[in-house]
Design brief:
It is a single chain. By secondary structure, the chain is of the alpha+beta class. The protein folds into two domains: about 50 residues, no CATH class; about 100 residues, K homology (KH) domain (GMP Synthetase, Chain A, domain 3), CATH 3.30.300.20. It has three helices and eight strands; from the N terminus they run ββββαββααββ. The strands form three sheets. It has a four-stranded antiparallel β-sheet with strand order 1-4-3-2, with no helix packed on it. It has a two-stranded antiparallel ribbon with strand order 5-6. The chain has a two-stranded antiparallel ribbon with strand order 7-8. Strand 3 and strand 4 form a beta hairpin. The longest helix has 23 residues.
Length: about 150
């Protein structure tokens, strides 16, 4: 379930924060950008199935960010993208995705859609994060930092 709890804005160059609160088992309630969501695992692996898995949310972030970037690139060129659909597929390699694939569909002819792919990739925050992976640190609330 996704509900809007507040309206927030974040300037580029600022920071975003998501807070996950463990609810037992494999379930967390998350506040992200003023939205409340439930993250869970499927019943067959011990979850309650009340929300998407974290990796589902990762793929949702990837596909939606790229779709928005494609729409932006098209608008910059003076047209819209009818029935745009972007599918993100992650192929597991152990405890991570070893391969990510974005598939773009639209009734727009390929010769008009193809020139948008690279500018959209450059404008997509999520694909930029994957392409230039940031350092990951894990900090305890008391300020102690542990490298990931």
């Amino acid at each position: 379930m996704i509900t809007r709890t507040a309206i927030t804005t974040t300037e580029r160059g600022g920071t975003n924060t998501a807070v996950a609160r463990w609810q037992g088992g494999w379930r967390c309630e998350v506040d992200a950008g003023g939205f409340a969501l439930v993250v869970d695992e499927p019943v067959d692996v011990g979850g309650t199935g009340l929300g998407p898995m974290p990796t589902d949310l990762l793929l949702a972030s990837f596909s939606s960010c790229y779709a928005l970037a494609l729409a932006w690139a098209a608008r910059k060129r003076g047209f819209e993208l009818p029935d745009l659909e972007v599918t993100a597929t992650g192929t597991y390699e152990g405890q991570k995705f070893g391969h990510l694939l974005l598939t773009v569909r639209s009734s727009l002819p390929a010769e008009r859609l193809a020139p948008l792919l690279e500018p959209a990739k450059r404008a997509c925050y999520v694909s930029n994060t994957f392409a230039h992976a940031p350092a990951v640190e894990i900090a305890l609330a008391d300020g102690a930092v542990s490298p990931a």
